[in-house]
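New to this. Comment on this protein:
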Amino acid sequence: MEYAQSLERLRNILDELREKCPWDKKQTIHTLRQQTIEETYELADAITENDWKGLKEELGDLLLHILFYSKIGAEQNQFTLEDVIEGVCNKLVTRHPHIYSGVKVQDDEEVKQNWEKIKLKEGKKSVLAGVPPSLPAIMKALRLQDKTKQVGFEWDHIDQVKEKVDEEISELYEAIATDNPEEIEQEFGDVLFALVNYARFLKLDPEAALEKTNKKFIRRFQQMEVMAQEKGKQLHDMTLLEMDDLWNTVKATERN
């Protein structure tokens, strides 16, 4: 089936549900908000796991949400799905002058720099204006750094970034020695911000890296629980040394 036909089928199904289903009738942009956030995180999980089947399913769920918001927007005489699509088409053409207007660029970094300049011309008051306040802190730090890079606020070399990480860690230790909770929190935040910057220079996504570590920890800890049960024990009844032995066994098994 052509994608246009598939999209029209989805719109027709949504129209029917909006008219006949008690749950769908009640939905507003506000009641859908939390579900949209959850669907986005489920998509992120599928990407992290390289789960193509899950990726396809979660993209479908998000597409449904886009159509649902557009349906409600049309009902409120605010905008239609066509308006949404035309809006993003126009934005893409405007912000890619190297494709549609003959502007020359050297690489992807220059593309991003032009993107930020165009947004300022469109009325943005700051290069940081496009960073959503509700983003998780690590993701927000990465976006802030990437944004300011586009105007030249950037280290020249990764060694400088490493020195900044070392400097911030030293300042954290100094703050810990003062036993001042507010200062410790501030310096700890500076360390995290510097590490995010270091990750960026290493071409890593710090949010994805931390999530992979979270998943690894969950997997290993749950395996420890299984091993403890096989010994007729529970982790809370074991000593730290015994649990550490289980942890090392799990790690060794994974490496082998």
Q: What stands out?
A: The chain has three domains: 3-92, 155-204, 208-255. Residues 208-255 form one domain. The chain is about 75% helix and 0% strand.
